[in-house]
Amino acid sequence: MVDSIRLDELSWPEFAHKIAAGAPVLLPLGTTEQHGPHLPLNVDVVLPTGVCERVARQVGGLVAPTIPYGYKSMPRSGGGEAFPGTLSLDANTFSLVVRDVIRGLGHHGVRRLIVVNGHFENAWPSVEGLDLGLRELRRDGITDMQVMRLEYWDFVRRATLDKLFPDGFPGTELEHASLLETSLMLLLRPELVEMDKVPSDGPATFPTYDCFPVPADFGLPPSGVLAVAHGSSAEKGGWLMDDHVALMSAAIRKEFGL
Amino acid sequence: MVDSIRLDELSWPEFAHKIAAGAPVLLPLGTTEQHGPHLPLNVDVVLPTGVCERVARQVGGLVAPTIPYGYKSMPRSGGGEAFPGTLSLDANTFSLVVRDVIRGLGHHGVRRLIVVNGHFENAWPSVEGLDLGLRELRRDGITDMQVMRLEYWDFVRRATLDKLFPDGFPGTELEHASLLETSLMLLLRPELVEMDKVPSDGPATFPTYDCFPVPADFGLPPSGVLAVAHGSSAEKGGWLMDDHVALMSAAIRKEFGL
Amino acid sequence: MVDSIRLDELSWPEFAHKIAAGAPVLLPLGTTEQHGPHLPLNVDVVLPTGVCERVARQVGGLVAPTIPYGYKSMPRSGGGEAFPGTLSLDANTFSLVVRDVIRGLGHHGVRRLIVVNGHFENAWPSVEGLDLGLRELRRDGITDMQVMRLEYWDFVRRATLDKLFPDGFPGTELEHASLLETSLMLLLRPELVEMDKVPSDGPATFPTYDCFPVPADFGLPPSGVLAVAHGSSAEKGGWLMDDHVALMSAAIRKEFGL
Amino acid sequence: MVDSIRLDELSWPEFAHKIAAGAPVLLPLGTTEQHGPHLPLNVDVVLPTGVCERVARQVGGLVAPTIPYGYKSMPRSGGGEAFPGTLSLDANTFSLVVRDVIRGLGHHGVRRLIVVNGHFENAWPSVEGLDLGLRELRRDGITDMQVMRLEYWDFVRRATLDKLFPDGFPGTELEHASLLETSLMLLLRPELVEMDKVPSDGPATFPTYDCFPVPADFGLPPSGVLAVAHGSSAEKGGWLMDDHVALMSAAIRKEFGL
Amino acid sequence: MVDSIRLDELSWPEFAHKIAAGAPVLLPLGTTEQHGPHLPLNVDVVLPTGVCERVARQVGGLVAPTIPYGYKSMPRSGGGEAFPGTLSLDANTFSLVVRDVIRGLGHHGVRRLIVVNGHFENAWPSVEGLDLGLRELRRDGITDMQVMRLEYWDFVRRATLDKLFPDGFPGTELEHASLLETSLMLLLRPELVEMDKVPSDGPATFPTYDCFPVPADFGLPPSGVLAVAHGSSAEKGGWLMDDHVALMSAAIRKEFGL
Amino acid sequence: MVDSIRLDELSWPEFAHKIAAGAPVLLPLGTTEQHGPHLPLNVDVVLPTGVCERVARQVGGLVAPTIPYGYKSMPRSGGGEAFPGTLSLDANTFSLVVRDVIRGLGHHGVRRLIVVNGHFENAWPSVEGLDLGLRELRRDGITDMQVMRLEYWDFVRRATLDKLFPDGFPGTELEHASLLETSLMLLLRPELVEMDKVPSDGPATFPTYDCFPVPADFGLPPSGVLAVAHGSSAEKGGWLMDDHVALMSAAIRKEFGL
């Protein structure tokens, strides 16, 4: 028997067997987006996928294929759509993808689902996709699906952040392509990280509003790294991953009574 | 420098550099769908991705992230949506995904694109997504993008098919989870294939029409294998892959003047 | 009493009476599309309508109004949208039309429906429209509608094809505006056929892929006739029509237990 | 040469020739809707099509295929969707159909278009479809298309109405399946009219508002005939048709400078 | 306790209390549209809101927030979109807004709803929004919502119109920014009316059809006042308001059994 | 002349005059949502409207009608859709409204726009609506529109927050119906605030994830007040308003060069 925590590596009878046994499914939401000159475009796919695979092992879950094209990058949280290689969907498109996948999972018997977001801007359209999917399932007579929706980076201990940022945590939005993501990539895919290319043109100094078009003095570092990536290490990535896995697993066990 | 034929493994400056140099981009279209008791759900992701990576090396191209959720499976070509683990999008959703990704590629300077379909039912909604994407690009002033769209399995020599099917080729639609796909999976991901589970309830004996709902005597093998998978081998997969890569590369070189 | 096999020629009480008695409804899907210099733009309306009317008489059915604008013509199966007079809908539009009509039929009590496609490219968006329509009907509490969906040209005996194509049948896609369609038009609407204008620039020599834009050497005959129309006759049209009517009627009787 | 005022009876070269010569195109908008026990469901297809064909002969125009499924019937103007056989589209679906057909006509060179509505409720969604179609054409660089949009029944002389309704014209909305439509059907398709079934349960006595659901005392005649059909005749239909053709032709000549 | 006939001025417990007690809700539909040089852009918001507030007091109802952006202005009934300050939604957008608000009201227990239109062109897309909203509610198991839909100006006594228009009522469509609307604004918001700017370039002399683009001789007064506003007065506004409130209240009491 | 900072209180010639002179337009985005037992449902309409009117006076701007139905309330930032009286739109609907209004403003010559959000959950769908609107305007040839998009509550001095929250600011999300909003309502609409009903069941103790459905122990105060509203005062509202107006006005002047 081919066993796997990857839903898509199972045959359909194996999938049916595990779902019938109550396995929770983790659905990672990623995107293809610039992450500075030192990181590849797939950071937001690699990281939530890696987190989900580790959590799945803890909770007896399955990881569905990661959605690789997400919602549009905004200048203040991801640099924006103008950076080469950022490939995004309209909000409605992204929400419909989430809706359809959730509807399909529900029809195939999945009753415990964790939607794990790995790209800041996906947050709201994933909420909408989830709401639309559950609405459709209710109309199809499926009313007992339980869903958690989260950003993996919110599962970190205060002490870990303090250790990582002795001078204070700059906040999630600015962490784009910075210390947290770079350290996690060094842990998971070090061959794709070029620490010698880490830029020093940050951190960003954004105003408290968006501008269209983005003015020249908007405070956006030309590198696309919004805070600081210097000092990243696989060890730090390990601290983060340990937190993400432990805290997410605990939350899932609590909510799903596992 | 991290070099890769995978678009998403590049940093944004590397991506920009390669696109500016004229690199063609291959976009694989897959899905998550039952492929019998001996194959995993990810066959239609693994195969077009594997083909694209090999073709990209031949033509100096880049492979964009594979779309992992495709259009709905139909009983006569994929077994249908009722098989556990088949996760599909509505046609409009799928077309919008293709539209948005193509629009994004166009805005980032891609002018040579090959859309490589790996799931039978994706064919028409991918045509529509492509048409919508190019329509939007024209309205955005981008009129010089060249696109090829193809099913990878159509790139095979008559002689190869004759060698594989001495008694005659049953046709593309019925080949679902059968000799061709099983052999290619044995070539690319043998650890996910369980030859001892290859069923013998085929081939399908469909009528010349669709039925909703599917009647009991519709001729659909309960295993979901529409033709015959016995006799599959990695060697046969190699014959196919050689054809796919050689013929697709030649076609791309011809159309794009490479 | 005005009696008719045309649904739209009945008054509403007559319609209600026949549906309550279990009459199956045939819904022809056509389009307005180039069919070479010798055939009118309405071939894909005339032919499925004509077939449906004859089948309706055999099975006690009703023919709903033919949808006259279908999905976009593709170069490899219909010549493409660039030919003058080809008037098509976006895929989503076409699917919504099919969805809405099916929803309406279901709400008015129709429980046996046959969707009869007469335009190659309508196939997949009609599947989607049907799926969407049945999904909505289920949500409205209507779960017992039976639907068949077919292309009329698939209902032909092997012997008939052998008689029509002594040198081998070129396949459905290439038959656009060629021997089959021309012969059927000579049977049904001979006054609209100009045999003296049958072109000789075919058959098409397409590659195994689509190209956008269509290159000059794509193998598309300038006339829009993809194979060969010489030798067409009303007699041959009669052979085809006999097959279509006999085989479709038999299939309908079988599936609907008539 | 097959000549015809029906656009869809021309071959594509003939279509191209006539459009290049400036022929205006008339697009009739119909529906499939109850019209009382004495009239068929196709009244709103037959009448605008008949008017358009006669006008086309006057102005050198072409008649495009009539859209056979229109917007939903409302109780106060058509009896409502509950009457058997009324088959309608959602407003958005109908508008998208109109949009797509107009976009197609524009891309094929049509610069003079008359959208001729034959179903009361189509009026507003046809305006929207037209607005969307012209908006898209402008974005495609086509800015010189001239369009007229009209209800054919508005083209009647005061004197004719006075002759038809010596006691006063009840107004367009209530004329559903009544004197005007019945007389025109007696002119165009008398074999589909059953004068012996003309009901006497009208006229409707509607309040000045819509109700959902329709209450029992809403004033809707059970027959679906909203005013009075007694006294209809082919002669009266002729008076109306003469007005429609003369006044519409004059208006088209004026607006398009023919 | 803050009491109010404005739904949005209540706290959620007060709202819940009143709805549980069976309060009908009035939903005014307005827009932002040119109303000549003497009236503000908000006429179609002020008037239905004012009417609804008065009716609500009569019937124990609540007034929901007025939708301030409506469907597109047409030249023959509102002057058209080209007039500065006319801010409109696509028909589908407007219908979706109406759908969503009605769905929300239904989910919160509202079972008696009156949709009160104050902008001519909103009529049909509001019907569609209502139909879509009720369809969704039915699928959510809510089948007992009663809805009335009306244009407030239809609630006027014949005698009042005769008093206001001794020479005959020109009809609703042409009354845009004319005597009725100006008089009602003088009653409700006199500080926003500039009677010295009432133009004399009307009434409009439209043909019986729409034209795109609008030709120079279309009969549209440059001021945007389609009929005549001279002679307007708050007193006349009072006559109208008295009728609107009395007749609407009576109709609501009748239909909802209050 | 009727002068006003409210766009909708101007006549169309006045609107045209001010826009031609370069007036910036402020578009407030609100919603109808529970705000605890002591505040009305219209808080998110009253507050951004009040801020915009004051800012408009500072910068010579105009305030467009506030959108009164916004995106769905989420439990962790607004209590959620289950609270009575919360009336929301689907994300796509809301984005289309924003798109259409922005497109209309652009077509009427507005080149300086500030989208002012007053409801937390509106943030992302307003970004999407803005992106869609500007995309359409570019396709219509309008490329010089400048837009700012902001949440008004982000325009506050650190010192003010320190003065308001001596024990530390709990963060924007939890401030729903709490000290900030209550104080601003006491400033703007004190008659709608019932301080004696301020609840003490907060603050919320949410986990770091969403749950569907919301579990009983989710930490959501039954009152819907997410933090603490005790201690609110009009004076504190004045401090906030002063900051909002001063900082927003300064930002607008900077970005638009006023």
From TrEMBL, chains A, B, C, D, E, F:
For the keyword Magnesium, the answer is no
Identify the stretch annotated as signal peptide in this record.
none
Citing just one GO molecular function, the answer is: creatininase activity
Q: Which domain of life is it from?
A: Bacteria
**Which PANTHER family does its entry note?**
2-AMINO-5-FORMYLAMINO-6-RIBOSYLAMINOPYRIMIDIN-4(3H)-ONE 5'-MONOPHOSPHATE DEFORMYLASE, 3-DEHYDRO-SCYLLO-INOSOSE HYDROLASE
User: Hey, which family's this protein in?
Assistant: Belongs to the creatininase superfamily.
Protein name as it appears in the record = Creatininase
Its source organism is Ancylobacter defluvii
